[in-house]
Design a protein that fits this description.
The structure holds two protein chains of two kinds. Chain A is mostly helical. Helices cover 72% and strands 0% of the residues of chain A. Chain B has a domain at 265-399. Chain B starts with a helix and ends with a helix. Classes of the chains: A mainly alpha, B alpha/beta. Chain A: It is found in: Cell membrane.
Amino acid sequence: MTAPMHDTTTDVDEPAPVAAEATAESKAKKVEGRSLKQIAWNRLKQDKVALAGGIVVVLLVVVSVFAPVLVSLFGHPPNEGNLDQLEDLTNLPKGALGGISGDHLFGVEPNTGRDVFSRIVYGARISMLVAVLAAAVAVVLGTLFGIIAGYFGGWVDAIISRVMDVLLSFPQLLFIIALVSVLPDDLLGLSGSGVRIATLVLVIGLFGWPYIGRIVRGQTLSLREREYVEAARSLGGGSRHILFRELLPNLVAPITVYTTLMIPTNILTEAALSFLGAGVRPPTASWGGMLRDALSVYEHDPMFMVFPGLAIFLTVLAFNLFGDGLRDALDPKGTR
Amino acid sequence: MRENNEDRPAAPAAESASEPDAGTVALDKDAAPGEVLLKVTGLQKHFPIRKGVLQRQVGSVKAVDGIDFDVRSGETLGVVGESGCGKSTMGRLITRLLEPTAGTVEFEGRDITHLGVRGMRPMRRDVQMIFQDPYSSLNPRHTVGAIVSAPFKLQGVTPEGGVKKEVQRLLEVVGLNPEHYNRYPHEFSGGQRQRIGIARALALKPKLVVADEPVSALDVSIQAQVVNLLDDLQQEMGLTYVIIAHDLSVIRHVSDRIAVMYLGKIVELADRKSLYESPMHPYTNALLSAVPVPDPRRRAAKSERILLRGDVPSPIAPPSGCRFHTRCWKATEICKTAEPPLIPLATGHQVACHHPENAEDQAPQDTVLLTAAVEAAEAAGVEVPETAVPDASKAEATEA
């Protein structure tokens, strides 16, 4: 009996260190909570202005994603003409303030009678889609080329930097207007506004990456001199490991900040292009397009200009405030 | 004699013995203690200075300019010298973080001078480095666990019992709490960070560890702990160290042999005892006289401090002949024209000087000091023999 007894005791003994390890792990997990991200979040929480901007940004994202649901709840389909809401002679909305009523929260469009609320909501969708996708293109290209230019230096850096200079000095707006006028309506299986949206995303992204690229290059130039890069090399790490495992995690903060600051710029560019008629095609709702439509009737129905203008203003302001707050929170040398 | 150790036959033997053999004790698979592990011959590193649009090379910084030494298995070689003398560059050359301009680096008889990243990868297991600045040598975005397990991942090695267990064992070995596996470097003090760096360097059980100023960024009270940790680990794991430092008391504590560098050259290479008791090169003398004495009663008994005049000359255009002749109080004409070779003047004591102290003068015929040397002697507080003073008229002529 002694032998089995002995066995059981060892069996009992064995799980003990495992349990100890588990508690140690949970303790370590608690400690891990105070990572750099946590510190940044704590700082961000104290910045009320940035937090307000962040809430508006989140709201906008929710609105864009759930646009069909919102419209079915509170409005009318964006391209449906509610002609009964217009005055017979002038084609201006019935009632005060552009026809604002419980049924049409932001009133209706002059001439067509389309519901302004649902067009603003769908316009947010287009604006966010173009701005975020273009920013994504810019971030991927900018990070890749910036990190390569900064790390390898020499002629690689010289070529990439000159390409960035050329792109930054290129007349972006004129180029897009010219490009849109020569592009066919159907391309690569996309049709209608799909081609326009894809074009906008690619072109805005293509002209936007040098901004990120320069910042990433500059940061990489200083980061590559850190000893941990040498340490990685002395352990046998290749360039790819150093670029993407050692340097990239340290670049996440500036990249995040400049992405949030780039999105409002992209929204403005998209709105400007739509305003000029080179953006999203007319039946599809867009804030810039609505502003252009409002231009002809603003003397009689100013509210039609106020809503898209306000939407652009609030969106850009919210993103900028949030981006600034994020930069302060992520900056390790920040005073707060 | 050292020459015997440097002989080629020792090297292939060491290589064949280095075949991985899991069963044997660490020391057995290494080169036997005393055998040459690392041999450096005529090593040079010149950093080009480029200017203009065409990036024309207009000169070069001769950071390391022809040094020879070897490191024997199990010993600690200390390298001292003032800032800018090429110590760190030398460390990065032997770990092949930099590509040498000329010369050879042989590790266990194998020429690693011009191996690429791929060729060096297997060698990285045997040669590791501890860095100077514990605040920049650890990636702030990686956890301690990720940092210490990086060697295993990069080398594709899975230690017995899994990576995590081995990392926690290593943390314990260097005196850290293994529970701190998931913490980030910014949560540690400088000394703790340096221990993390040491754990990373030792993860792959290297044979040679090059420590570049391992304690100079640390508090004095922490310095002793880290130095003692390095000492203990050397005994446990049979490590060979090359320790680069500018602190002579640290070097004295840890080293078996010491190399003194000045402007990219080794001016003296000797056993610790021999170097501290009878330094031969005037530069070594000056360095040793600058070591502060903590005991005020002993301070009075200590001989006068030798003050060196001026700065270290620029490594872009180093002085002709002996590089120290512009600041040396013993410099004569030969020092200006002929470069003294690094030769053994006593057992285990190599020195590169025409007029060494504590040894026979290598150029006894040349007794007239340079004008600069007389001034240097006055500044240094060294007495000058009457015969050595150059003609008054000659001195005035040069001054005018």
